[in-house]
Amino acid sequence: xxxxxxxxxxxxxxxxxPSAYALGITEIVTASPSWDTFTNRDGSGLYxxxxxxxxxxxxxxxxxxxxxxxxxxxxxxxGSVDMMTCKDKExxxxxxxxxxxxxxxxxVFFKKDRIGPWQGDESLRDKEILxxxxxxxxxxxxxxxxxxxxxxxxxxxxxxxxxxxDFYVDDMSLITHSLKENxxxxxxxxxxxxxxxxxxxxxxxxxTERGRAIKKLYDDGIYELHKIGxxxxxxxxxxxxxxxFDKH
Length: 248
Hints:
CATH architecture of the largest domain: 3-Layer(aba) Sandwich
Number of domains: 2
Structural class: alpha/beta
CATH superfamily of the largest domain: Periplasmic binding protein-like II
Oligomer: single chain
Mean pLDDT: 91
Order of helices and strands: HEHEHEEEHHEEHEHEHH
Radius of gyration: 20 Å
Low-confidence stretches: 1-17
């Protein structure tokens, strides 16, 4: 009987991690690049506003550190920040939240004459695809490809415009940003943008007692806001698709 009680106690501990108050969580520190309409430097944007509402349910303020994606992931792993916004997959000792903050398609930009008539995945097979660091890898594609990391989306776009590579991959908001910032003159009629996949983006946390407690606060909070109708207006404000929270 005594051993049964010990096992039940351990199971209860795993199922119900210590509360934020018990762990003394008085601030959440997040990290990511400054992404237009997501993490604007003035503190506005989808991710900023969603997290403010989620942790505001518990009176916990959120502070953001701007850094490149790879650096942000390392800061989470080191325990220097609590959360990276956002990733599509986890690598131990990091873990993803249950609910995403963003869902959307990702697309490729390419020159028509170089690739030929679009044939879906087969047009990608064995081709080089340029991506921003840590954003995409082979697992995001259904056929063998060579993913090459380039410092920025603008640089990746420029290499495709100059026919130095086959494709540039990103979501539509980042492709739009790259096109806006691109300094190279070109005729858009010679190029094409095609959808190649869809994925969800989740907060990334460290698998520690504190990280699991923050994950629970986030998961419970974002779903509560979804159920009471306070979340969707934020997505509509920023023009982003509303995730299907009920399927997760």
